[in-house]
Amino acid sequence: MAKVTKKIKDKFSKQEELHKTEKEKLDERREEILAQGRKFKYPMQFAKHRLVFITIAIAFVALIGAAVFGWVSLYKNQSTSDVAYRITTVLPVPVAKVDGENVRFSDYLMIYRSSIMPVEQQNGSSDAADDDTESIRKFYKRTALTEAEKYAYAIKLGKENNIMVSKAQINEAFNEHLKIGGAERSEDSFLKVLKDNFGLDKGEYQRMLYLSLMEVEVSKLIDVNATSKVEQAQKMLAENGGDFRAVADALGIEYEETGLIDIMNIDGGRSTKAYEMEPGQISEPFVSQNGDCYYIIKVLGKADAKVAYVSLGIPFTELNTRFAQLRDENKIQEYIELPMDGVQ
């Protein structure tokens, strides 16, 4: 019975084959060809997936390697090279933390490199490795780190007190620096001086200006003692006919009297300011160029490119006091090891 059934099925199958249309035959042939193609398709897909996986794995390993190299260079070896500096300008990694505010590694390196460059130019090759040279470098590293930490703290206080430093303020300060010494320089010549002597480009110098301006604005707000002494000094000068020494003695503030000095004199901007005034004129209070105090000056005389003046200096102290307190309370975390060596 089974043999009969098989013969009947074969007979019907042959009859069906004879009655197939040309379209059905073409469909079957196409399916056969596609089935053969699948044998090659799936192995190729596997190879592509494997290639993508290997590429991702290599990239991941390279990223981990770069991260380890960067960490060792910056935090272990404390590299200050161009490569290390450029890494920190792209990746905002911290070198320390002050009361919860990160200190940019790039700010620390920018300050250090601009400070050590004139010293190395004066003393010779930067490749020297004697004890004295290394001691000098450590001192400038410590000073730069402390300065960067103070700037970061000023930024923190600025955020808390809604203090902003605008691009307009930075540009104004930049243009004022073009006129330091009484003779306005071209921007190109000024930038060349910065690059040749301090290794700074315009963007880096503007960052320096931002940091110093933020510190000044914060100091002006929080240093009520300095503000009070400025107001007292102005009142006393108006009452005693401009006797600067008497005011300095009464308030315990800085007093200085000069003979005729060149307007290129490095004195925090006092000679430049005095040269713009008339003899006998008393200035309004203004902040020194390095942002550490208020000055009030009186012009004593002028001759050619020289000027004589008397001045009162009222230093900012509150920011330094608060910063020192943070240090005492261990609220400053540093990620590189640098001895204090008396730097506050």
Written account of the structure:
Helices cover 63% and strands 12% of the residues. It has 344 residues and is an alpha+beta fold. The chain folds into three domains: 2-62, no CATH class; 93-223 and 329-334, Porin chaperone SurA, peptide-binding domain (Triger factor/SurA peptide-binding fold, Orthogonal Bundle); 225-315, no CATH class. The strands form two sheets. Strands 3, 4, 5, 6 and 7 form a five-stranded antiparallel sheet that branches. Strands 2-1-8 form a three-stranded antiparallel sheet. The termini are far apart. Residues 1-12 have low confidence and may be disordered.
Summed up, the domain count is 3
The CATH class of the largest domain, by name, is Mainly Alpha
The CATH superfamily of the largest domain is Porin chaperone SurA, peptide-binding domain
From the alpha carbons, calculate the radius of gyration and give it in angstroms. Answer: 37 Å
Spans with pLDDT under 50 lasting ≥5 residues? Answer: 1-12
Task: Please give a handful of descriptors for the protein shown.
alpha+beta; 344 residues; three-stranded antiparallel sheet; 12% strand; 12 helices; five-stranded antiparallel sheet; 63% helix
Please sum up the structure shown.
63% of the residues lie in helices and 12% in strands. The chain has 12 helices and 8 strands. A hairpin with a 5-residue loop joins strand 5 (286-287) and strand 6.
Topology of helices and strands:
Elements: H1 2-18, H2 22-76, H3 82-90, E1 94-98, E2 101-104, H4 105-123, H5 131-160, H6 167-177, H7 187-198, H8 202-222, H9 224-240, H10 244-251, E3 254-257, E4 261-262, H11 270-275, E5 286-287, E6 293-303, E7 306-315, H12 318-328, E8 332-334
Antiparallel strand pairs: 1-2, 1-8, 3-7, 4-7, 5-6, 6-7
Helix pairs in contact: 3-4, 4-5, 5-8, 6-8, 9-10
